[in-house]
Design goal:
277 residues; alpha/beta; Rossmann fold; six-stranded mixed sheet; four-stranded antiparallel sheet; 7 helices; 10 strands; 17% strand; globular; AAA+_ATPase; ATP-binding; P-loop_NTPase; ABC_transporter-like_ATP-bd; ATP binding
Length: 277
């Protein structure tokens, strides 16, 4: 049973998920995407920028409405009947003006119930090396990210959705955090879906890897173990494949990234936009 009383269904179950930002768009952001994760799975979500990783995580978190009812967490529809025990942590949090205001970290954590979860909060304060006397408007982006993680992880969760939130952390704090997350999966059967572009030190963390390519899942979920190979090399191979496919698709539509043989008069351009005079 899960901590919220649900039976042992798949923790995450998306089948043939298709999503458009705008109903009038001819090409979907996600198309026929499939991902199934059991309780206790630690899964890395790998894909190029713009592949749809963040969109998928926000759908799973119940932050985007889909037309179809084929995306479930702990057996419940992620939008119509969002289950408890789901935590989503994304990079946009640190841009909120509230979390950049003059608030003492201890008061900030207490405002979201830190005093009720003191044991886990204190453990995370040590792992993330957070000072309760910090003031939110005076600390760095990396330190602010640590506060976000402490706040988001101090209650017990069943499913954790992470979107690039370790990018600001130094290597020591990140390593200790990954160790903590792995222990949560092993000891409590919690499920983690983690989108990242930083693969060093992660070889023993996942037991599954999902590849998102231009909004779809082109291959079955990869079963992974510490002896499966070089995680970085696997991800790099997939990303090269993604880039070639994207370039071919864009070229077929007459779109090319990078230099386009622009013949505009450079002097005219710079004279127009030279704000130094």
């Amino acid at each position: 049973m899960t901590s919220n009383g649900c039976p042992d269904e798949l923790a995450i179950d998306c089948r043939d998920l298709t999503f458009h930002f705008n109903p009038n768009d001819t090409e979907p952001v996600l198309s026929g995407l499939n991902i199934q994760l059991a309780r206790g799975d630690c899964c890395l979500l790998v894909g190029a920028n713009g592949a749809g990783k963040s969109t998928l995580l926000r759908i799973l978190a119940g932050k985007r409405l889909t037309k179809t009812r084929n995306c479930r967490i702990l057996g419940q529809d992620v939008f119509m009947n969002t289950p408890g025990g789901v935590v989503y942590l994304g990079t946009e949090w640190c841009m909120n003006p509230v979390v950049r205001s003059d608030i003492v970290v201890s008061h900030f954590l207490d405002s979201v119930g830190g005093w009720r979860h003191r044991a886990r909060r204190d453990r995370l304060l040590e792992i993330l090396d957070v000072d309760l006397d910090w003031r939110m408007h005076q600390i760095s982006d990396g330190e602010r990210r640590r506060v976000q993680l402490c706040m988001g992880l101090m209650t017990e969760w069943d499913v954790l959705l992470l979107d690039e939130v370790t990018v600001d952390l130094d290597v020591l704090v990140r390593a200790d955090l990954i160790t903590f997350l792995a222990s949560e999966a092993k000891e409590r059967g919690a499920t983690i879906l983690y989108a990242t572009h930083i693969f060093d030190g992660l070889g023993s963390f996942p037991n599954k890897i999902v590849h998102i390519q231009l909004g779809s899942t082109p291959r079955p979920t990869l079963e992974w173990s510490p002896g499966s190979g070089d995680l970085f090399s696997v991800a790099l191979g997939w990303l090269r494949e993604d880039r070639e496919l994207r370039r071919k698709k864009e070229a077929a539509r007459g779109r090319i990234r990078g230099p386009k043989g622009d013949t505009r008069d450079a002097r005219t351009f710079f004279d127009k936009y030279d704000y130094a005079h």
